[in-house]
């Protein structure tokens, strides 16, 4: 009788992803937001960090792990959906995304760098061509990255718009490439606080000596500093109006940079369903990948534009040398 209930061992099945080797760049970009050349570059860059030392149990290749992670960044879908569409278990997808994200973040100082003297001079020239605003080396802004409600310290992540987020501050240059990023603060923190406590603010406070060293542009949510120019709260003259218009036109590049970042990697525009510390790493990894794409001149369709959600919820103005610098700019560059 017992022989009727023999337990047969189930044969283990291995599912495989669709063959992508012969896909054209536009087909790869539609699925992974990266071209074939870009994926080849990432494979070489991350090979040392990701390559398995064994082929036991058919270990994933570096390229497979990169494609899984890019698919998650590109769609923001659930891990089980990513796994079903690519032929992997959701636990495998989760582990791979965490490992690849960590590996990408390890290259932050290689791809997110504050410009050197030559790069600053080039940015000053190109920014001035745009709207006539002098000595601009970058534009600073914060954007909210929506996350699921965390289990710990949940109220700190509720922003002024009522949803859970992390407040990511970044600076971009004239090309829309990010030269500084800080994604370590919960959504309830104001942009001005994020910048004031950042390493970039400390660096500029020490190193900025003269107007010729270059300045940043920020919105009215930031405090006016010698190295950070903000718009006027109230315009009282034609010169100040011209300053205001040039400031707005020049600072628009950071809004476009955030828009392109979130369009390229939809995970930043939807909701990141990870713990806050992992969501912060995903945001930084997407910034690094965006900069690599800019360096490689990957084409991007700008038919759609996602308006980034501004973290500004107040007006800050400081006195002292910040006001003096702004008055100097108005008098010498925007007066008739």
Count of separate DSSP helical elements = 12
Describe the strand arrangement of the main beta sheet, using strand numbers.
Answer: 3-2-1-4-5
The coarse silhouette is elongated
Structural Rg:
23 Å
What is the helix content?
A: 40-55%
Which range does the strand content fall in? 5-15%
The ordered H/E elements are HHHHHHHEEEHHEEHHH
The whole-number mean of residue pLDDT values reads: 88
Structural class: alpha/beta
Low-pLDDT regions: 302-311
Distance between the termini: 104 Å
Q: What's this entry about, in short?
A:
This protein has helices at 25-32, 36-50, 62-75, 79-86, 90-105, 108-111, 117-131, 191-196, 199-207, 238-264, 276-295, 321-333, and strands at residues 136-146, 165-172, 178-186, 215-217, 228-229. The chain is of the alpha/beta class and 336 residues long. The chain has a 5-stranded mixed sheet.
Characterization of the model:
With 336 residues, this protein is an alpha/beta fold. Helices cover 46% and strands 10% of the residues. The chain has twelve helices and five strands. The chain has helices at 25-32, 36-50, 62-75, 79-86, 90-105, 108-111, 117-131, 191-196, 199-207, 238-264, 276-295, 321-333; strands at 136-146, 165-172, 178-186, 215-217, 228-229. Strands 3-2-1-4-5 form a five-stranded mixed sheet. It is elongated. The termini are far apart. 40% of the residues are buried. Mean pLDDT is 88; it is low at 302-311.
């Amino acid at each position: 009788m017992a022989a009727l209930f023999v337990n047969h061992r189930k044969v283990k099945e291995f599912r495989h992803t669709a063959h992508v080797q012969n896909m054209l760049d536009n087909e790869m970009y539609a699925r992974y937001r990266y071209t074939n050349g870009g994926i080849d570059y990432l494979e070489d860059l991350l090979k040392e960090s990701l390559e398995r030392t064994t082929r036991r149990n058919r270990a994933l290749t570096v390229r497979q792990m990169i494609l899984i992670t890019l698919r998650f960044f590109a769609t923001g879908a659930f891990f089980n959906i990513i796994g079903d569409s690519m032929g992997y278990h959701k636990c495998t997808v989760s582990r791979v995304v965490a490992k690849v994200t960590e590996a990408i973040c390890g290259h932050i100082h290689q791809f997110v760098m504050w410009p050197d003297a030559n790069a600053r001079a080039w940015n000053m020239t190109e920014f001035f061509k745009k709207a006539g605003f002098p000595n601009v080396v970058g534009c600073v802004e914060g954007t909210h990255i929506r996350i699921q409600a965390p289990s710990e310290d949940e109220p700190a992540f509720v922003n002024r718009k009522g949803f859970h987020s992390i407040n990511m501050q970044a600076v971009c240059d004239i090309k829309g490439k990010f030269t500084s990023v800080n994604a370590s603060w919960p959504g309830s923190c104001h942009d001005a606080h994020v910048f004031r406590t950042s390493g970039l603010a400390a660096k500029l406070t020490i190193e900025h000596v003269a107007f010729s060293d270059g300045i940043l542009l920020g919105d009215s949510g930031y405090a006016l500093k010698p190295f950070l120019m903000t718009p006027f709260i109230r315009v009282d003259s034609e010169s100040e109006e011209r300053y205001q218009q040039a400031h707005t036109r020049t600072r628009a590049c950071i809004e476009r940079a955030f828009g392109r970042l979130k369009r390229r990697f939809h995970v930043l525009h939807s909701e990141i369903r990870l713990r806050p510390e992992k969501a912060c790493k995903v945001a930084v990894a997407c910034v690094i990948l965006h900069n690599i794409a800019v360096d490689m001149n990957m084409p991007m369709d700008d038919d759609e534009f996602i308006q980034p959600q501004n973290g500004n919820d107040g007006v800050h103005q400081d006195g002292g040398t910040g006001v003096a610098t702004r008055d100097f700019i108005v008098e010498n560059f925007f007066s008739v």
